[in-house]
């Protein structure tokens, strides 16, 4: 089977209403037909998802259109997350072995492993917000509301009194509020709601969260509803490229100045040629820096 990877620009070209033409519609339908008939296995990566995230709230609709097409074409065919890809490449470079040939994640998890305690979707925080809203409606001041909240939750975790009270509550109340803030499949929100009330396990919550994250279509709705969440996701892809680009531009400027100095001094008439001084130094630097990165990475894994 042929495997095909489309990048963010491809999805933009096929979904942006401003670029809508008969040719593009025909291409889109042909790709969808190949995916549905399993003639081609389309796959996506974290880069495709992150680059599709809207940078502004105005672009939210376009992001959802791209995510919808990506989901229709790829389903759960995802490449492994950046951290696992880099780890495999570094290990193969350091050990002189071939990297794994199959870099697909069988569960469609395009993102790094996420600990439930590190997520922004903390159910207890949601319950605290609901409790504060109720107290506000009762006429309590902000200081009184905070004082009352401290008797319910400590260090982000519920006190036993709150757990006992929540166990008697209807989980649909929290589920409804959760769906307003984080769009996801209702069955997953229902699990999270039960977890918030102490009626589901941490494992159940984690599985529901992971299943929500594996569907880019719902993830994009999540990001566009809570736009502040999308900034770190988009930056995860764009920031390294910006930093590397700036470093390379600075190095290119230094190399150009050095090449001019070599020519003016008559030491090298073609410093950037195949056997020129600049070219040779670049090759030495690439190998030295690559080995340094590999060694540092392996040492960090050993200490972890």
Q: What does this molecule look like?
A:
The mean pLDDT is 75. The chain is built from 14 helices and 6 strands. The strands form 3 sheets. A two-stranded parallel sheet has the order 1-2. Strands 3-4 form a two-stranded antiparallel ribbon. The protein has helices at residues 8-15, 22-36, 46-52, 60-74, 82-95, 123-137, 142-150, 160-166, 171-181, 186-196, 202-213, 216-225, 230-264, 277-303, and strands at residues 2-5, 40-43, 78-79, 104-105, 153-154, 157-158. The protein is mainly alpha-helical and 304 residues long. Helix 3 (46-52) packs across helix 13 (230-264). It has 3 domains: 2-105, no CATH class; 116-213, no CATH class; 239-303.
Outline the biggest β-sheet: 2 strands, parallel
Provide the structure class.
mainly alpha
> Cα-atom Rg, whole angstroms?
26 Å
Approximate shape: extended
- Total number of domains: 3
């Amino acid at each position: 089977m042929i495997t095909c990877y489309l990048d963010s620009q491809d999805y933009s070209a096929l979904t942006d209403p401003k670029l809508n033409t008969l040719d593009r519609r025909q291409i889109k339908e042909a790709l969808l037909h190949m995916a549905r008939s399993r003639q081609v296995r389309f796959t996506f990566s974290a880069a495709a998802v992150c680059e599709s995230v809207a940078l502004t709230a105005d672009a939210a609709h376009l992001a959802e259109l791209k995510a919808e097409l990506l989901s229709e074409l790829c389903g759960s065919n995802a490449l492994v997350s950046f951290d696992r890809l880099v780890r495999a490449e570094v290990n193969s470079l350091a050990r002189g072995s071939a990297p794994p040939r199959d870099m697909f994640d069988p569960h469609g998890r395009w993102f790094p492993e996420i600990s439930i305690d590190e997520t922004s979707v903390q159910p207890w925080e949601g319950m605290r917000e609901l409790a504060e809203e109720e107290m506000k409606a009762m006429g309590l001041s902000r200081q009184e509301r905070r004082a009352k909240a401290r008797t319910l939750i400590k260090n982000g975790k519920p006190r036993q009194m709150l757990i006992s009270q929540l166990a008697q509550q209807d989980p649909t109340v929290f589920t409804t509020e959760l769906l307003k803030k984080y769009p996801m499949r209702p069955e997953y929100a229902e699990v999270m709601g039960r977890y918030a009330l102490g009626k589901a396990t941490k494992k159940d919550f984690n599985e529901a969260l992971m299943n929500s994250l594996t569907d880019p279509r719902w993830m994009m709705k999540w990001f566009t509803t809570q736009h502040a969440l999308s900034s770190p996701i988009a930056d995860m892809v764009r920031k390294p490229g910006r930093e590397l680009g700036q470093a390379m531009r600075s190095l290119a400027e230094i190399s150009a100045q050095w090449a001019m100095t070599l020519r003016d001094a008559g030491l090298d008439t073609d410093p950037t040629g195949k056997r020129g001084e600049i070219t040779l130094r670049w090759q030495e630097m690439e190998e030295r820096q690559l080995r340094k990165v590999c060694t540092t990475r392996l040492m960090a894994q050993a200490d972890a």
